[in-house]
Hints:
By secondary structure, the chain is an alpha+beta fold. The protein is built from 10 helices and 14 strands. It has a 5-stranded mixed sheet with strand order 9-10-8-13-14, with helices on both faces. Strands 4-7-6-5 form a 4-stranded antiparallel sheet, with helices on both faces.
Amino acid sequence: MSQAVPDTGGNMERKTEKTLVLFFINLVLIILIFIGTIYVGVFVNHKLGIDHELESRGRAIVNSFILARHWNAKYGGVYVEKTAGIDSNPYLKNPDMQGIDGKIYTKKNPSLMIREISEIAKEKKDGFEFNITSLRPINKNNIPDGFEIKALKMFELGEIEIFKKEHSEGSTYFRYMAPLIIEESCLTCHWDQGYKTGEVRGGISVRFNIDQEEKDLAKKMYLILGLAVITLLSLFGIIYRLVHQFGRRLEKTEARLQQMAVTDELTGLKNRRYLVERLRSEVKQAHRDLKPVSCILFDLDHFKSINDRFGHEVGDQVLRTVADTAKDQCRETDILSRFGGEEFVMILPNTNLEGAMEVAERLRLAIMAQKIILSDGRVLTFTASFGVAWMLPPGLVAGEDEASLLKRADDGLYLAKGNGRNRVEAVA
């Protein structure tokens, strides 16, 4: 005999499912933030390392030219033989001199030396270009561009170096600039411009192509992104499996708790809470379908005396025996429960009064036939009294509900006890 369980746990199951979904989403978000932060940190750290290397490269190039310029200025410029293609510096007074060998030599001051080296570097395309410039250049070829003007102004405010990335002609370049400070040797050429020792004379800027570095950085970004996606998908799969397993265990636990909540521990029958819910449901169904529903309420006769004479352990055995007997007499559609103490209720859907009376009488006889052998060899028998009530269209009128049906069954039980017990009585 099986009994359908009412959907009393439906809302709880939906709440549990919703809770698990929210738990999974929140856990995924936390992991997403955590893993994302780690991989973003790795990428940012790698990017900062490349930026630092570019800054160091630019600084090293500029410093090498500053040292070369310092060496030139220390000796007041250097002279080279004036051969074909070598012009005198138009910005110096008396730049040429004749040696004792009769050859003409022209002076290359620090600025001109750096300018000519920069032109050689530009022609050779050795990977970088540089320029010596100032806000008040003597040589028109040393006029600063936008980046250099901004850097020179910031040098006057105390900055010691300026660098940035810029895009030009479809490529990416790194630009670095450092200031040139007026030294005593610089005044040989620039005394008439009002400079003083320690002031910013100008600056040396360098520019080099970093397309390869940018490509490497992009590859690194895609690699890190791919690893992050793989890591997240793996973790999501593991988490989903764990949450799914946890959800299944939780569902089983909830089902067990729900079963325990509606089950009488002693007899294994459904309890009063379940009975009230099912009776309400069956009465509503009977109203909708205009079909009869019956209720049997039965009670063990003189059960208190059994407990008093033989003890509660024997009394419990009697209750279990009655419950098992009633189960055997139930049809698959009937609902059986322990109503409280020694009282039991059976709901019979789609059953009229005559059918319910037959079921009650069979059950009465089956209970009366049961025997329990006591420890001292005595045989214990017992009986039960039954009250039967039903609802039948058109008797299913407004205002008649499960409480009235149960009340009439109780009235039948009261009548059975009043008429001598161990009998079945009905109240229409």
